[in-house]
Every structure is written in C-alpha cells, then in structure tokens.
Amino acid sequence: MDQVTGPELMLKFCEMSCHKGYSNFFYGGRPGVAEQLKTSFTHRFPGLKVVGTYCPPFRPLNTEEQSELRNLFARLKPDITWVGLGGPKQDLFMAEQLEKLDTTVMVGVGAVFDVYTGRIKDPPQWMKRAGLAWLHRLVQEPRRLWKRYLITNTRFLGEIVLQLLKLRTYDLDVLTGYE
Q: Could you state, in order of their start, the residue ranges of all structural domains in the chain?
C-alpha cells in the first residue's frame, strides 16, 4: 500500500468526476485562489462541475456568515467539498460543519489550492515518500510555518510521550464529540 497525497487525490477525483458527473466545491485559500483553481481545473478537466467557491475570512465565521454558507450549500448541494484551510483549522471546520452543510463528502487538502494555482511548489516524490514534505513547505514559507513546526509539533510530540508513559490520558469521547 502506498501513500495518497492530497494533490494526487484531488487530481484523480476531479478527473473521475468528469465521467461520473460529481459536483465539486472549493472552500478556502486566500482571496481569489479558489476561483482561480476553479478556472484552472475546468480548463484542465473539460466537463468538470465546480458548482461554487468560497474564500472564508481568516477568523471563525460569524452567525450571519454561517447562515449564508448554509444557504449557499443548500442551493448548490455539492457532492464533494474540497477544504483548503490547512491544519488544524480545516479539520475543525469539517468536524463542525459536515452535519450543517448540504454536501456528501468533505476532504481536507491543506495547501493544495496554492499548489495547483502556482503559489507554492509541490514537494518532489522522493521527499513525500521519505516523510519530508513538511521540510519542503518550511523552506518555501519559513516565516509562516516555523512556529507550527517548532512549537506546535514539539508540543504535540511531548503530549504523545506523556500519553505513552501513562502520565496523561484523554477521554476521546469528549475530544471528538461522540458519546
């Protein structure tokens, strides 16, 4: 079994969508990025249905924006929503919104919108296979990503060690919202 990266999954699925008739929605990115991705992909994949795009603000959606988003999804009903917000923001968004938005599937793809609009380069295959895609991203965007990789990831690894040593436990039902 081999790894399937976000960029590879998105390309294959969009190609398949042309034949199956699935509708796609691009959520995320800086202003104009999702719209540029829609233009690029509809040229690259003739017949691809991209029913909408949405560029959220760099803060949580307020009540009015959430209502507008629900109305937009109720009208468009995309089969798949590609979420390009980066982690953990996209994971939290999908967990919160999947039950509220009229879409079948949401897939978090991180920086894929930026990759396919030429804003950043996708790492070479050898780096992906070696687990070094993060290093490739860090070299491209050091000012934005240094804190995530140095502080946040180090803290996360520390939490794993504490859990392995049984010095800290977590109630997964509380973390995931499932009871």
A: 6-140, 142-179
What class does CATH assign to 6-140? alpha beta
Report the distance separating Cα 42 and Cα 116, nearest Å: 12
Q: Are 25 and 81 in contact (CB under 8 A)?
A: yes
pTM, entire model: 0.79
**pLDDT tens-digit profile of 52-69?**
999 998 888 899 999 999
Count of residues in the chain: 179
Q: 3-state DSSP call for residue 51?
A: strand
- Sign, CA torsion 34/23/109/89: positive
User: How far is it, in rounded angstroms, from Cα 155 to Cα 51?
Assistant: 40
- Give the residue with greater pLDDT, 44 vs 125: 44
Whose CA is closest to 66, among 81, 56, 76? 56
Q: Residue range 122-147: average pLDDT?
A: 83
